[in-house]
From TrEMBL:
The keyword Hydrolase applies. The keyword Protein transport does not apply. This is Family 1 glycosylhydrolase. Signal peptide: none annotated. The lineage of its organism: Bacteria, Pseudomonadati, Pseudomonadota, Gammaproteobacteria, Vibrionales.
Length: 463
């Protein structure tokens, strides 16, 4: 089999806070992402001393979406994963009534996608929440935030129930243990006790959202979204195998709860041994058990290794791991491991027996215009080609794979570093780290490569 299934969804993935800009237009409130003008690797600021950042305009998708969606259609997209900015709907998070201008904006987006026969695939919360909820309630540390999120989810599900049939709850929900301000609105120095309490509230909110989707839009499907942080043992030493097991369990915990509806024993042991006591109220366990997701979605950029020797670990981009001597690194130090995607797909399929969806995968690189003003991004083509070949191998292995939405089909602002120079797109955007540029869009070589991959359902991929 050289082709992907006819029902396979092809496209790309973007996030509101990395593409839209217009960060205070039409009633939008400040989000936690707006408070990170230099990326999640920098300390956040207070509202009073916030300085302008590149995300404030991003790539101006807010105003240029018809042009960008037309380019996606030209590539052949059948699916676009995007997020709704919670702060466009409820600027401070705790209002009783939504902001109509925000709701109307996404109506226009979904109508534009429908015009081009592109399926919208919507994330309810993608690395942002109303900053006012962190100021006034402590973010997800407060159970009240569950109710605020439920109100937001109910409003958008009711509003778009005839336009959106694929939903995700929280983007890379397991990242909260590594970047708590981004994930759950807590200070970066927050204790594990506080982080896991906030995570419990977010898992309850995710379960509520799953049940809301099933009740409001019976013909829709809703999934979770994990950062697929696959970790290998550094050696065949049993101690390294156990170290890898522990590292993988740190992120699989989230998939286990959202799929199986209960806290797994290995996490309860970790809580006991580290003095973590997650406060639960009557009905919490039943709430989690009632809301198994319909499918598992995940991002995959790199694999890592784990060792029982703490001296072997290197500080990485957000997540630390042991370098793998068998793999090359990207310009940002991420290990390039296409075969790891096949391993991960088989691993998740065996564990959950639910359909899978690759909702992020791509190569961040510094693209340079050649003498003719073109971008010959063969490195990106090679990366994506090799990963898609392994995804196809996983399908042959028996994995049920719904689709592939590569990260950043158009250049956007990097979430971790707030750079434009870390480019992922098939479409170049003339904007630079210092904020200069015309915002002009330009097709890269990879644009035409991906266009052919989609047209041939993968038959054009190189082995």
């Amino acid at each position: 089999m050289k082709t992907f299934p006819q029902s396979f969804l092809w496209g790309g993935a973007i996030a509101a806070n990395q593409v839209e800009g217009a960060f205070q237009q039409h009633g939008k409130g400040l989000s936690t992402s707006d408070m990170l003008p230099n990326g999640i690797l920098s300390p956040h600021q207070t509202r009073q001393d916030r300085t302008p950042g590149i995300k404030d305009l991003a790539i101006d998708f807010y105003n240029r979406y018809p042009q960008d969606i037309a380019l996606f259609k030209e590539m052949g997209f059948t699916c676009l994963r995007l997020s709704i900015a919670w702060t466009r709907i409820f600027p401070n998070g705790d209002e009783l009534e939504p902001n109509e201008e925000g709701l109307a904006y996404y109506d226009k987006i979904f109508d534009e996608l429908a015009k081009h026969q592109i399926t919208p695939f919507v994330t309810l919360s993608h690395y942002e929440m109303p900053y006012a909820l962190t100021e006034n309630y402590g973010g997800w540390a407060s159970r009240k935030t569950i109710g605020f999120f439920e109100r937001y989810a109910r409003v958008v599900l009711e509003r778009y129930k005839d336009k959106v049939k694929l939903w995700l709850t929280f983007n890379e929900i397991n990242m909260s243990t590594h970047a708590p301000f981004t994930g759950v609105g807590l200070p970066e120095e927050a204790s594990e006790q506080d982080i896991y309490q906030a995570i419990h509230h977010q898992l309850l909110a995710s379960a509520q959202a799953v049940n809301l989707v099933h009740s409001i839009i019976p013909d829709a499907k809703v999934g979770n979204m994990l950062l697929g942080a696959l970790v290998y043992p550094f050696t065949c030493s049993p101690d390294d195998v156990i170290a890898a097991m522990h590292k993988n369990n740190q992120w699989l915990f989230f998939g286990d709860v959202q799929t199986r509806g209960r806290y797994p024993g290995y996490v309860l042991r970790y809580f006991r041994e580290n003095g973590i006591e997650v406060a639960m109220e009557p009905g919490d366990i039943e709430q989690l058990a009632s809301a198994s997701v319909d499918f598992i979605s995940f991002s995959y950029y790199a694999s890592g290794c784990a060792s029982a020797d703490p001296k072997a670990t290197e500080v990485g981009n957000i997540i630390d791991s042991v370098p793998n001597p068998y793999l090359e690194k990207s310009q940002w130090g991420w290990l390039i491991d296409p075969k790891g995607l096949r391993v991960l797909l088989n691993f998740l399929w065996d564990r959950y027996q639910k359909p899978l969806f690759i909702v992020e995968n791509g190569l961040g690189a510094r693209d340079e215009l050649d003498g003719d003003g073109e971008i010959q991004d063969d490195y990106r083509i090679a990366y994506l080609n090799d990963h898609l070949v392994q995804a196809r191998e996983a399908i042959l292995d028996g994995v049920e794979l719904m689709g592939f939405t590569s990260w950043g089909p158009i250049d956007l602002v990097a979430n971790s570093t707030a750079e434009m120079s870390k480019r992922y797109g098939y479409i170049y955007v003339d904007r630079h780290d210092d904020g200069t540029g015309t915002l002009e869009r330009k097709r890269k070589k990879s644009f035409y490569w991906y266009q052919e991959v989609i047209r041939t359902h993968g038959a054009s991929l190189s082995e």
